[in-house]
Design a protein that fits this description.
By secondary structure, this protein is an all-alpha fold. The protein has 7 helices and no strands. The longest helix is centred in the middle third of the chain and has 24 residues, at about 70-95. The protein is elongated, with a radius of gyration of 18 Å.
Protein backbone atom coordinates (compact mmCIF):
# COMPACT_ATOMS: atom_id res chain seq x y z
CA UNK A 1 0.00 0.00 0.00
CA UNK A 2 1.45 3.36 -1.03
CA UNK A 3 0.40 5.20 2.15
CA UNK A 4 2.01 2.50 4.31
CA UNK A 5 5.28 2.86 2.39
CA UNK A 6 5.03 6.64 2.67
CA UNK A 7 4.39 6.31 6.43
CA UNK A 8 7.49 4.13 6.82
CA UNK A 9 9.58 6.72 5.00
CA UNK A 10 8.16 9.52 7.17
CA UNK A 11 8.89 7.50 10.31
CA UNK A 12 12.47 6.84 9.23
CA UNK A 13 13.06 10.52 8.47
CA UNK A 14 11.35 11.68 11.67
CA UNK A 15 13.41 9.20 13.72
CA UNK A 16 16.51 10.74 12.14
CA UNK A 17 15.42 14.16 13.41
CA UNK A 18 13.45 15.58 10.47
CA UNK A 19 10.80 17.74 12.16
CA UNK A 20 8.82 18.29 8.97
CA UNK A 21 8.38 14.52 8.59
CA UNK A 22 7.02 14.23 12.11
CA UNK A 23 4.70 17.16 11.42
CA UNK A 24 3.50 15.31 8.28
CA UNK A 25 2.81 12.20 10.38
CA UNK A 26 0.72 14.25 12.81
CA UNK A 27 -1.22 15.96 10.03
CA UNK A 28 -1.82 12.67 8.26
CA UNK A 29 -3.09 10.76 11.32
CA UNK A 30 -4.51 13.35 13.72
CA UNK A 31 -8.10 12.79 12.53
CA UNK A 32 -7.93 9.02 13.14
CA UNK A 33 -6.46 9.60 16.61
CA UNK A 34 -9.08 12.25 17.38
CA UNK A 35 -11.92 9.92 16.31
CA UNK A 36 -10.65 7.09 18.51
CA UNK A 37 -10.02 9.29 21.53
CA UNK A 38 -13.31 11.16 21.25
CA UNK A 39 -15.19 7.88 20.86
CA UNK A 40 -13.58 6.64 24.06
CA UNK A 41 -13.70 9.82 26.16
CA UNK A 42 -16.15 12.17 24.51
CA UNK A 43 -15.12 15.66 23.46
CA UNK A 44 -13.26 17.85 25.93
CA UNK A 45 -9.98 18.56 27.63
CA UNK A 46 -9.29 14.90 28.49
CA UNK A 47 -9.64 13.93 24.83
CA UNK A 48 -7.42 16.81 23.72
CA UNK A 49 -4.76 15.86 26.26
CA UNK A 50 -4.82 12.19 25.27
CA UNK A 51 -4.61 13.10 21.57
CA UNK A 52 -1.53 15.22 22.20
CA UNK A 53 0.04 12.61 24.48
CA UNK A 54 -0.48 9.99 21.75
CA UNK A 55 1.83 11.90 19.42
CA UNK A 56 4.29 12.65 22.22
CA UNK A 57 4.50 8.91 22.89
CA UNK A 58 4.94 8.18 19.20
CA UNK A 59 7.77 10.70 19.01
CA UNK A 60 9.55 8.95 21.87
CA UNK A 61 8.98 5.55 20.27
CA UNK A 62 10.09 6.45 16.72
CA UNK A 63 13.56 4.89 17.04
CA UNK A 64 11.95 1.63 18.19
CA UNK A 65 9.05 1.55 15.70
CA UNK A 66 9.55 -1.65 13.69
CA UNK A 67 6.68 -1.19 11.26
CA UNK A 68 5.12 -4.56 12.03
CA UNK A 69 1.75 -2.81 12.11
CA UNK A 70 0.53 0.10 10.05
CA UNK A 71 1.38 3.44 11.64
CA UNK A 72 -2.33 4.29 11.96
CA UNK A 73 -2.91 1.03 13.83
CA UNK A 74 0.05 1.73 16.10
CA UNK A 75 -1.18 5.26 16.84
CA UNK A 76 -4.73 4.07 17.47
CA UNK A 77 -3.41 1.48 19.92
CA UNK A 78 -1.48 4.17 21.81
CA UNK A 79 -4.57 6.41 21.80
CA UNK A 80 -6.83 3.63 23.08
CA UNK A 81 -4.37 2.65 25.82
CA UNK A 82 -4.06 6.25 26.96
CA UNK A 83 -7.85 6.64 26.77
CA UNK A 84 -8.28 3.55 28.96
CA UNK A 85 -5.92 5.13 31.49
CA UNK A 86 -7.92 8.39 31.36
CA UNK A 87 -11.18 6.47 31.82
CA UNK A 88 -9.76 4.71 34.86
CA UNK A 89 -8.67 8.04 36.34
CA UNK A 90 -12.13 9.44 35.60
CA UNK A 91 -13.81 6.43 37.18
CA UNK A 92 -11.72 6.80 40.34
CA UNK A 93 -12.48 10.51 40.44
CA UNK A 94 -16.21 10.30 39.73
CA UNK A 95 -17.15 6.67 40.22
CA UNK A 96 -18.58 6.47 36.69
CA UNK A 97 -17.40 6.18 33.10
CA UNK A 98 -18.84 8.39 30.37
CA UNK A 99 -18.31 8.53 26.64
CA UNK A 100 -19.19 10.91 23.83
CA UNK A 101 -21.65 13.57 24.85
CA UNK A 102 -24.18 13.95 27.63
CA UNK A 103 -27.87 13.41 28.18
CA UNK A 104 -28.21 17.16 27.54
CA UNK A 105 -27.23 16.72 23.87
CA UNK A 106 -30.01 17.87 21.58
CA UNK A 107 -32.07 15.05 20.05
CA UNK A 108 -31.15 13.80 16.60
CA UNK A 109 -33.28 15.52 13.97
CA UNK A 110 -36.13 13.30 12.81
CA UNK A 111 -39.22 13.76 10.65
CA UNK A 112 -41.59 13.72 13.62
CA UNK A 113 -41.33 14.27 17.36
CA UNK A 114 -42.16 10.67 18.31
CA UNK A 115 -39.45 9.25 16.09
CA UNK A 116 -36.95 11.82 17.38
CA UNK A 117 -37.71 10.86 20.97
CA UNK A 118 -37.37 7.15 20.20
CA UNK A 119 -34.03 7.71 18.44
CA UNK A 120 -32.76 9.80 21.37
CA UNK A 121 -33.82 7.12 23.87
CA UNK A 122 -32.04 4.46 21.80
CA UNK A 123 -28.90 6.63 21.55
CA UNK A 124 -28.90 7.18 25.32
CA UNK A 125 -29.43 3.46 25.98
CA UNK A 126 -26.45 2.59 23.78
CA UNK A 127 -24.33 5.28 25.45
CA UNK A 128 -25.24 3.95 28.92
CA UNK A 129 -24.46 0.38 27.85
CA UNK A 130 -21.06 1.36 26.47
CA UNK A 131 -20.39 3.53 29.54
CA UNK A 132 -21.03 0.51 31.75
CA UNK A 133 -18.26 -1.47 30.06
CA UNK A 134 -14.81 -1.59 31.58
CA UNK A 135 -12.13 0.28 29.65
CA UNK A 136 -10.78 -2.76 27.78
CA UNK A 137 -14.21 -3.83 26.52
CA UNK A 138 -15.09 -0.24 25.68
CA UNK A 139 -11.93 -0.10 23.57
CA UNK A 140 -13.07 -3.16 21.62
CA UNK A 141 -16.47 -1.60 20.94
CA UNK A 142 -14.93 1.69 19.89
CA UNK A 143 -12.34 0.13 17.61
CA UNK A 144 -14.63 -2.44 15.99
CA UNK A 145 -17.99 -0.68 15.86
CA UNK A 146 -17.17 3.02 15.76
CA UNK A 147 -13.75 3.02 14.08
CA UNK A 148 -14.78 0.03 11.90
CA UNK A 149 -11.34 -1.55 12.31
CA UNK A 150 -11.00 -5.20 11.20
CA UNK A 151 -11.46 -7.85 13.88
CA UNK A 152 -7.87 -9.09 13.48
CA UNK A 153 -6.58 -5.57 14.09
CA UNK A 154 -8.83 -5.07 17.12
CA UNK A 155 -7.54 -8.34 18.59
Amino acid sequence: MASDVEDRELVARAAAGDESSFRAIVERHEQAVARAVTAMLGPGDDADDVGQETFVRLFGALPRFRGEAELRTYLTRIAVNLSCDALERRRRRTGWLTIGGTDDDPPIAAPDEGEALEMEERKNAVRRAVDALDAKHKAVVVLRMLEERPTREVA
